[in-house]
Automatic annotation (TrEMBL):
The chain crosses the membrane at residues 36-54, 60-81, 88-109, 115-138. Residues 34-130 form the SPW repeat-containing integral membrane domain. It holds the Pfam family SPW. The lineage of its organism: Bacteria, Bacillati, Actinomycetota, Actinomycetes, Mycobacteriales. The keyword Transmembrane applies. It comes from Rhodococcus olei. InterPro entries: SPW (IPR005530). This is SPW repeat protein.
Amino acid sequence: MSTANLPIEKHPDIAALRHRYDEAASNPVTQTNEGLLMLAGLYMAASPWIVGFHGTTALMVSNLITGCAAALLAFGFAAALGRLYGLAFAMPVLGVWMIISPWVVVGVSTTAGMIWSNVACGAVVVVLGLGLMGVGFMRARG
């Protein structure tokens, strides 16, 4: 079969790759991973009000933006993993930012609660993000 005249979305390799990601997305482990990533992102976005970041506007904004980005990415992965898999590397990067932001954001006097909240949530996002990146390496069991 010649593939020279086929549009790219009809190419057999693309179809096989999409099928592989569809199978990976239907895996309960992957679905749990995406759900936990979304919850971690929502927690990070709400953490300034949960933990009480009084007088630390810069860290509040950082957590809000980072948490919303993580939650939206997780929602996108749950909706269309095959199309958004290329962005999976962003989750561990966001997690690392969550971990280091209490020390990197300028003009913030942190409390132990702020640090623990960011480090714990960031570690969860890093681990789950690396797990999501590993979805591309999963082999179909047959």
